[in-house]
Amino acid sequence: MNRRNLLKASLALAAYTGLPAAGLFAARAMAATADGEIEHFDFEALQAHAKQLAGNPFVDTSQQLPPTLAKMTPQQFNAIQYDPAHSLWNDIKGQLDVQFFHVGMGFKQPVRMYSVDPQTKEAREVHFRPQLFNYESSGVDKAQLKGDLGFAGFKLFKAPEIATHDVLSFLGASYFRAVDSSGQYGLSARGLAIDTYAKRKEEFPNFTKFWFETPTKDHTRFVVYALLDSPSATGAYRFDIDCQASQVVMAIDAHINARQAIEQLGIAAMTSMFSCGTHERRMCDTIHPEIHDSDRLAMWRGNGEWICRPLNNPATLQFNAFADKDPKGFGLVQTDHEFSSYQDTVDWYSRRPSLWVEPTTAWGEGSIDLLEIPTTGETLDNIVAFWTPKAPVTAGTSLNFGYKLYWSALPPVGTPLARVHATRSGMGGFIEGWAPGEHYPEVWARRFAVDFTGGGLERLAEGTGIEPVITVSSGEVKDFNVLLIPDIKGYRITFDWYPNSDSVAPVELRLFIRTHDRTLSETWLYQYFPPAADKRRYN
Q1: I want to staple 203 with a disulfide (CB 3.0 to 4.6 A). Which of 34, 98, 194, 473 is the partner?
Q2: Can you identify the CATH homologous superfamily of domain 419-535?
Q3: How far from chain centre, in Å, is Cα 355?
Q4: Residues ≥6 apart with Cβ < 8 Å to 482
Q5: What's the rounded Cα separation, in Å, for the pair 294 and 384?
Q6: pLDDT of 12-48, one tens digit each?
Q7: Count of CB atoms within 10 A of residue 58's CB?
Q8: If you write DSSP's letter for every residue of 77-145 in order, what string do you get?
Q9: Which residue, among 459, 521, 525, has the nearest Cα to 492 in the 3D structure?
């Protein structure tokens, strides 16, 4: 978890503060600043190179940084700024631009950057030199900056805020993030996840090289290529990035090659944070009612079923795999964008984007995997979700996955049925409106309230019979109530769960609503963690 911890701390300070735009060279001055030798580049050649590389032993190219960079704080790292006169496409004066990150702290992998002429397929490397940066308030000893240290990553900018706020950032391993219309970064995506929940230690592949297609003055889409390398795999990636007014859409073509057998291969991986929310209050002893980058895992299964799985901050690490075939989409979603829900004026959780994955090729059989890690606060990314192919990944295996990533307030698609609006839980075993004071229930129970809205619920005729359909993995459910809530133009389903054993194993709950034989809502999945038997009392 050290990698996630580092990224959470450093990215919050360094990668996503909207520094002035800067970069390295302009199209019409390529020879002056992109000082590498001319090389041929095309995506087919990159794919072939990545596959060939997978047949060779892994070579660790991370470097030992000079002390002035290795020992710096996140604040110092953040203070290193680009000279805005050297942005990558500054001379074009167009719609797009790029700047690169300095190496430092835990970012010691030198990432090589190249400019590509899309017409001639010629590329030149851009080499690091201190003259490209402003170190004035960073405390960096420039005398220690010897040789080509490479770069740590890059930011992308789009007009009209080309010199003020970035819209997408790649920094650290294969991590990247994008904004929506709020301009606020949130959860991260990854090029590849390896053995996130496996018998061996998790592996964090690195993007080691990037190639940028030089745009024309009027181009509004970025085209970026990347080489991924790790002890277990290599990859060739193409990113077609459309930074729209309300969202960022990334079309990704990923070609992955296994160096060795991989127990768990995570495709379209995303990493987020959930500390507490409406249903999980264990870690909410702050002034904030909720603290999270995402509140649920949403899934549109291959068979057309829509699933809402609220996220948890469990007391112990939890892993769940949701089997599927050719999923239509999935993502970590921030559904609640009301300031009142968070009362947060620093991190602005009310502005965090959702991330939705839309496969564009047939993914076959596999599972959408969810890892939930205990966290005591908001500084650790503790939620991981990705697709894992069912077929074993052996040494020499080559795989291709096409998909789109949508960074937007809400996913671009949704069920026509009613959706889960909120999940709440608390003391059970009593009649609503008569919360016990002196006389607690004799039998312990846990109450759940699930609100459904949309999908035409507000248009149902008065007296329409709504039936909750619920299944549980253990225990039993009683005391169902179906309540029309005019304030949300929807319905609240409440029920109590009673244990039938002393087991503390997680309880899986599944709920949807219907009328007669017509399904009215998406499916709510929930994982509840019962307390120990001696804790199942009220006083």
Answers
A1: 194
A2: Immunoglobulins (2.60.40.10)
A3: 6
A4: 466, 468, 491, 492, 493, 513
A5: 11
A6: 443 333 333 333 333 333 423 556 678 999 999 999 9
A7: 15
A8: HHH-EE-GGG-TTGGGTSSEEEEEEPPBTTB-SPBEEEEEETTTTEEEEEPP-GGGEE-TTTT--GGG-
A9: 521
